[in-house]
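Problem 12. The chain below contains 158 residues. Write out its predicted structure in token notation.
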Amino acid sequence: MVIMFEVLMFIFENYMDSNVSLRADNQTIVLELENVGFTRYEIDRALDWLEGLSRFQTAVDSAPMLVSPSIRYYLSEESEQLGVDGRGFLLYLEQLGILDPVMREVVIDRVMALDHKEVDMGRIKWVVLMVLFSQPDKKSALSLLQDMILSDAFDVLH
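Solution.
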């Protein structure tokens, strides 16, 4: 069974531009994804997930920049979905200045939109990458996070 996250990654790698908009219309993408072997159900879930990211991007663009020394308290569902490592990772990214409080909330929302069976540390990192990719003014943070993730991947290989 193909999970929605695999479809999402395929779309992200093959059809996204730097404004988190699809370079092709949905119908064309759906047909191509079905030809690759993805199910319509998982394709629709991935497109809905991207639509949610796009809605947040619009809200973030119009929101004032928030900088707060406060601590984020997680709902029990969020705690369960993110896990201790995921919450620690988001806090770490905030402390490094890679995520601001608004972007953190976008990441949490998009992780919560995944099926709980699809969430692990690697996927949380990919969600952060996709969220940062959706924000043109976050390119330096995106680059730093990509370097961190790649160095982790190379550490695993050694």
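Discussion. Residues 153-158 have pLDDT under 50 and may be disordered. Students who got a different answer should revisit the alignment rule from Section 12.3.
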